Amino acid sequence: MNAFLDGCRAVVGPAHVLTSPGDLIAYVTDHRRRHIGAALAVVRPGNTEEVAAIVRLCQQHRVPIVPQGGNTGLVLGSVPDTSGNALVLSLTRLNRIRGIDTVNDTLIAEAGCILKNVQDAAADAGRLFPLSLASEGSCTIGGNLSSNAGGTAVLRYGNARELCLGLEVVTAEGEIWDGLRGLRKDNTGYDLRDLFIGAEGTLGIISAAVLKIYPRPRAQLTALAAVRNPAAALALLASAREHCGDTLTGFELMSEICLQLVQKHFPELHSPFSQRHPHYVLLELSDQESEQHASQLLETVIGNALEAGLIEDAVVATSMAQSAQLWKLREHISAAQAAEGKNIKHDIAVPISRIGDFIDTTDRLLAEAFPGCRLVTFGHLGDGNLHYNVSAPEGMPDDLFLARQAAVNRVVHDSVHRYDGSISAEHGLGALKREEILRYKSPVELRLQHAIKNALDPLNLMNPGKLI
């Protein structure tokens, strides 16, 4: 492989070809630190042409490629296996904002741009880029698109797919497809953009994207409501949609144990309620008219819900600081659960109307099969995506609990399937769920996906062992 590595050094410069174990470790370790792979090298190209040249070298020498952005994924999609044969292609040096068009309301960002930097670039131009994730300070646009990331604003703005108008992609042959067209209508054949979004780097490498940006809202208001059960939360969602329309941009569900864990591990974050409630809903309105208009809408929704008995209590943030504190309760759930111990995560989606029944049924099945397990349920109720996580009973060693992961997954995923849902809503399949999905996809769907993979990557060098 000396000739291959020498070729890589000639393309990107010796400083950007990493081969020592100390330099590689961060790139081959997954975000949750449960898997450490191995790599032939890490290569850090600085532009699209260098990406294409490296891909051509990989084709010539038959070297598998693992594209990587911020490496914040949870399904082993951006790290190599343990064979040591693959090249990790880090895209973090492709980090330029190529342009902003405030008339067309578009922004062109390279794949290595950190999401928070894209948000800030849009804000500097008086616009909003609405994709928002807990990892927005380290995840990258290329990774967001490759996994079709969701986040907290999908209810109003859609997933990453809906926020992208065009792509620049390096194909498996090392050619560059320039699809950076900021068009909202383009009916000229197969939609190649949608083919590469959500493909987890298995068909080609996204190097840049045309993203939608929006006028910044004149007001954002947040409220936290306590509800008896998910059915009441769904009724509140229906009422909020009826009264607020697209002004409703966030609607997050949290079970009581979520807040207990946050307050245990982050004692500076306090619940605004004097007593505990079974579930909570975090609502956010983003209004293009005025703060007064948004306040009237929110007061109407909360008032009607209290009168109808849909909610047991509610607090409305009266300042940006209070709003931020309410969101911190939601945003710190994952960190609090990690501090509590290892857990079994599920990123699932079911039709919104069936979420209440799904939670009731699956909670019962898990309690019967794994007595004492703790169900840390939270997520984007407004778009049907739940982070339905299972923690060990108090006092049970982590390793003993994780030994039951396959059995826990079977209960949860079979229940998801019965409710016409998906076992991966916004994190992708990666290597973690690649075999699991075979239980739930039809033979026809699997054949079609394999046909696409074989057509675009016949040598199976693009992120092999992931997704398909």
TrEMBL record:
InterPro entries: FAD-bd_oxidored_4_C, FAD-bd_PCMH, FAD-bd_PCMH-like_sf, FAD-bd_PCMH_sub1, FAD-bd_PCMH_sub2, FAD-linked_Oxase-like_C, FAD-oxidored/transferase_4, Oxid_FAD_bind_N. Residues 35-216 form the FAD-binding PCMH-type domain. PROSITE patterns: FAD_PCMH (PS51387). Keywords: FAD, Flavoprotein. One of its GO terms (biological process) is respiratory electron transport chain. It comes from the Bacteria. Its cofactor is FAD. GO terms for molecular function: catalytic activity; FAD binding. Belongs to the FAD-binding oxidoreductase/transferase type 4 family. This is D-lactate dehydrogenase (Cytochrome). It comes from Paucimonas lemoignei.
